[in-house]
Amino acid sequence: MIRLEKRPEPSKVWTVATPLVAVLLTMVAGGIMFALLGKDPVAAIRTIFWDPLFDPQFAGYSRPQLLVKAGPLILIAIGLSLGFRAGVWNIGAEGQYIIGAICGASVALAFYPADLWIIFPLMVAAGALGGFAWAMIPGILRTRFNTNEILVSLLLVYVAEQILASMALGLLRNPEGGGFPGSRNLQQYGAASNPELIAGTGMHWGVVAAFIAVIFAYILLNRHMTGFHIRLAGQSPRAARFAGVNPARLVLLCLGLSGGLAGLAGVFEVAGPAGQISIDFNIGYGFTAIIVAFLGRLHPVGILLAGLLMALTYIGGELAQFMLGLPAAAIQAFQGMLLFFLLAVDVLTNYRVRIGKGATV
Amino acid sequence: MKRRTLLGATAALAVLATGAFAQTDKVKVGFVYVGPIGDGGYTYEHDQARLKVIEHFGDKVETVYQESVPEGADAERVMTQMALSGTDLIFATSFGFMDPAANVAAKFPNVKFEHATGYKTAPNLAIYNARFYEGRAVLGHIAGKMTKTNKIGYIASFPIPEVLRGINSAYIHAKKANPDVEFNIIWAYTWFDPAKEADAAKALIEQGNDVLLQHTDSTAPHAAAQEAGNVIAFGQASDMAEYKPMPRVSSIIDNWAPYYIDRVQAVMDGTWETSDTWDGIAPGMVEIGEITGIPEDVKEEALALKDKIAAGEYHPFTGPLNKQDGSVWLAEGETAEDGALLSMDFYVEGMKSEIPN
Amino acid sequence: MNLGAIDPVLLIASLMVASTPIILAALGELVVEKSGVLNLGVEGMMITGAICGFAVAVETGSPVLGFVLAAVGGAVMALIFGILTQYLLSNQVATGLALTLFGLGISAMIGQGYRGIKPPATPKLDMGPLSDLPVVGRILFSHDWMVYFALALVAAVWAFLKFTRGGLILRAVGESHDAAHALGYKVVRIRLAAIAFGGACAGMGGAYISLVRVPQWTDGMTAGAGWIALAIVVFSSWRAGRVLLGAYLFGGITVLQLNLQAAGVPVPVEILSMSPFVITIIVLVIMSATQRGAAVAPAMLGRIFHASS
Q1: C: neighbours with 3+ CB pairs under 8 Å?
Q2: Of the candidates C112, C220, C259, which has its C-beta nearest B207's C-beta?
Q3: Looking at beta carbons, which residues of chain A come within 8 Å of B85?
Q4: From the CA of C238, how many Å to the nearest CA of chain B?
């Protein structure tokens, strides 16, 4: 009989070792899948995990791209993780990301073609406020009417998508775009653009913001009373109330922070890598960030690493697709597998495996 | 003059380069798709064309592709990585890839880029598009002839020029065939949601529309038409032959293969240069699928219309045509200019509803 | 504009069909959540069911077999989630999302040979003269058997949760797994059964899309229906009857907005397009505001159970 015994403290060794074990297991399982598809499993695994980082042909370009891809994921996931710790379920970061981008882009386009240094800071503020406001809808409905925030935040994603389409086709449409949908490209509007800060590094303001968010969240959770309240509310809502935590304020704080950060991610993306508001501007960062948050065990440093790993599988997966002709579906399944293994072996961090007689589960 | 010499010299260099290249290696062609190749419609047809490129050139060509590439930053990265991997020619097959393609093309002057349905060109960035409105004129004619309720349902995606051209072209020719005809439009506001398309088709059928046109890719409207009986529909993007002979009576097919083969050949020959191609029925970029299940005389008329368009004798947008608000768009005998067509943002006179936004 | 063209009888009949996949999936997820487990992988299980059902129906010519295997396929996917979350104690939210990713990938791989094929038709149930009755005939007696199956399942789940001992145990597990464990119930096994049931329901819901509603196979064709099902469970306040209400409300507004467009009602399309989501939110707000405190989520929802004794 195999049973699990809870460790008094999470194992330090396994905390580091489990991700490696998971990646190894994924390589084996994924390799089998690739072999079944008639592809060279070793080449496939190497292309996904190794080539984006070290292949001389690609690495110079794809290494910085890791930051571009991971930046928004980390930024959003950090915000979500605070709420998830406190038991506040914001599933709609995707919608807050969209609204943030629309607000930021609107500010930029309102000033077009003025060349003022103030434009970019204003855009960033508008983006954060937009995301914040969009997250306040489920927040206020929850605190005021006791409406479940999972449903409201999730359904508001679809509403935000409709607003996005409407903006790309209407108000924000590029008047010089020949009637095509989509706004002006902000990359080509200096005062509003969010370019690479140091050439060849992939660093843009969004990545900087992601790093700041990681540090901020770390300090908040470990050194600050609010962080303590957040953790307490998640672990024991009753105790939190005795400790003087105002649950309504905590809900608004968590939703507001996560919405604001998602909005920031949106504005940095629209001003930088994406460049414009288009019908299909959002590509699921808000949902993927939920995975990143949990993969990082809701810990700021963990989220940083999880975001980078996710980004690696995206970029490596792209390489594998066109270098080896693997279908996109196989890459998706492979990512799913990697997540399964990462989540599964995590059990070793918190539990000891015992073989022998014991209580059956 | 100076510029031309320079261009000539570059061309000569390119010939040398590709010539030398061809001896040692294959021409490598990349395809960037916006959807999965299993979408059964737009991306599926681009991939079919890729397969025909392979069939045509055999081992002289190597193709790579990437499915479901989001527009924006991801598209730019995918194209950059393709260029880095030694691809000679890259087809970016969706409108949203325009700025990314332009950016990457600027970074890789020796790689050729082809962008579908956009308007930005560069010395190494060509654009291509299909005159689907030519095909829609033929479908519109059949629709006008076949409707008994005089109500034609149209499932549209987003109000963009491409879709509006299709609606207007179909409407003009349906109206010519049957002056009492009325178009009812549903904007699905999505590129891809088969279940929603099914609902839209049902809503149209239940309101008495007995002909369905669609600018969305799934066969859901055909299934709804079949279930209802007495309703006909048209294949979109691909033939949708599984619903032959009824309710699918014809189709408008995207056939990119001739163009792709041409362009790959040009790279092999070293004659590739930037261009702006907007082909219709004549070169075979737009195909009308086999016409089935309708009276012989309607079929004859439809084919005659198709031939006239193909021969260049007739332009689907020929005056007199007014805009929806009654203002004159084209005078008697005048045909629409490409520029006006490409940026079309209005309905023609007679359409009842309004365009969103 | 021609509102007269909208026939309310046909509208109701349509919304019943349009809502069926969401009812099935939401009902399954309801049972899962009642047991205290949150599986966000509904979309992944639906799409797997959609391709399993489609492939089997095409190969055997039998839609019934298709639905059965769709249920099996959905349940197998669900059990991946079950093993990970129940035995390996992984986080449920993340595992569910991973399941969606995995399901979308696997289904597209299985589906490669099934594009552009028409599946065998799922016949309408022959109700004889009943279907000729005015109004009710069209609304109630003119559907395929899956519509009735879904309705029967709503009643069955409702009765199971309310009246049976099994339902009581399931709810006990969802409200306090430690107490249920102390009483000697096999918490993990009960939850696995609930998870498998949820997967089977989601699988059938997916197959209803690929075999009846559309019917064809394309990659990712469920297009977010799983997420709507999840929202409907919350909307229902974890009550079976309200799942029906929520799904009909959502499906009804979707169908109605398309009908309004077809009739040329001068309301901006983007407003119509977002109306199903907005109205669902508004109705939930009204409901939650008027009956404060009642019907909350199962207490153990999403929490990990580990028998420490």
Answers
A1: A, B
A2: C259
A3: 57-58, 322-323
A4: 26
Domain map (residue ranges) of chain A: 40-325
Interface contact flag, B203 C255, Cβ < 8 Å: yes
- A81-122 per-position pLDDT tens digit: 999 999 898 999 999 999 999 999 999 999 988 899 999 999
Best of A180, A282, A287, A315 to substitute, by most chain B Cβ atoms within 10 angstroms, is A180
B168 and B205 together in one domain: yes
Check residue B40 and give its pLDDT: 78
Residue range C3-42, pLDDT digits in tens: 777 888 889 999 999 999 999 999 999 999 999 999 999 9
Looking at the structure, do residues B56 and B153 belong to the same domain, yes or no? no
Residues in chain A within 8 Å Cβ distance of C84? 340, 343-344
Report the residue of chain C nearest A169, measured CA to CA.
Answer: C270
Give pLDDT, residue A261: 98
Q: Tell me whether residues A151 and C281 touch, CB distance under 8 A.
A: yes
Domain for residue B260, yes or no?
no
Question: pLDDT tens across C228-281, in order?
Answer: 999 999 999 899 999 999 999 999 999 999 999 998 888 888 899 999 999 999
The fold for domain A40-325 equals ABC transporter involved in vitamin B12 uptake, BtuC (1.10.3470)
Query: What DSSP string describes B296-317?
Result: HHHHHHHHHHHHHHHTTS--SS
Task: Choose the final residue of a domain: B130, B151, B173.
Answer: B130
pTM of the entire structure?
0.92
Q: Does B132 touch chain C (CB under 8 A)?
A: no
Query: Quick one: B139 and B109 in the same domain?
Result: no
**pLDDT tier for residue A360 given thresholds of 50, 70 and 90:** very low
How many CB atoms neighbour CB A197 within 10 A? 12
Instruction: Indicate the pLDDT class of residue A223, thresholds 50, 70 and 90.
Output: confident
Task: Spell out which residues of chain A touch residue B77, defining contact as CB-CB under 8 Å.
Answer: 62, 65, 68, 315, 318
The CA distance from A258 to A83, in Å, is 7
pLDDT at B313 over 90: yes
Q: Which two tokens stand for residue A62?
A: 């794809």
Does the bond joining B247 to the residue before it have cis omega, within 30 degrees of 0?
yes
* Chain A residues close to B74, C-beta within 8 Å: 283, 318
DSSP C211: I
Which CATH number belongs to the domain containing residue B238 in this structure? 3.40.50.2300
In a domain, B270, yes or no: no
Same domain, B120 and B136: no
Q: Count A/B contacts: CB-CB distance under 8 Å.
A: 103
The model's pLDDT over B249-264, given as tens digits with 9 standing for 90+, comes to 999 999 999 999 999 9
Domains of chain C, CATH where assigned: 3-119+129-290 (1.10.3470)
- Location of structure tokens 């939401």: C26
pLDDT digits (tens, 9 = 90+) for B201-218: 999 999 999 999 999 888
Do C115 and B203 count as a contact with CB atoms less than 8 A apart?
no
pLDDT tier at B11, thresholds 50, 70, 90: very low
- Tell if the CB–CB gap between C307 and A359 is shorter than 8 Å: yes
Mutation target among A144, A151, A357 for the C interface, most CBs of C within 10 A = A151
Query: In 3-state terms, chain C is what percent helix, strand and coil (to 5)?
Result: 75, 0, 25
A272 contacts on B by Cβ (under 8 Å): 73
Residue B17 has pLDDT above 70, yes or no: no
Strand partners, B153: B184, B212
- Mean pLDDT value of segment A278-288: 92
B143 neighbors B175 (Cβ within 8 angstroms): no
The last residue of one of the domains, among B106, B130, B154, is B130
Q: Please give the backbone phi and psi of residue C40, each rounded to the nearest 5 degrees, phi first.
A: -85, 10
How many domains does the structure of chain B reveal?
2
Range of the domain at B154: 132-253+286-342
DSSP-assigned letter for residue C125: P
Q: Are A168 and A34 in contact (CB under 8 A)?
A: no
Contacting subunits of A (3+ beta carbon pairs below 8 A): B, C
The one-character DSSP state at C305 is -
- Our CA-based measurement puts residue B206 at a distance from the nearest CA of chain C, in whole angstroms, of 7
Identify the pLDDT of residue B75: 94
Token pair belonging to C228: 């709507």
A333 neighbourhood in chain C, CB within 8 Å: 101-102, 105-106, 109
Residue A359 has pLDDT above 70, yes or no: no
Q: B215 and B305 share a domain?
A: yes
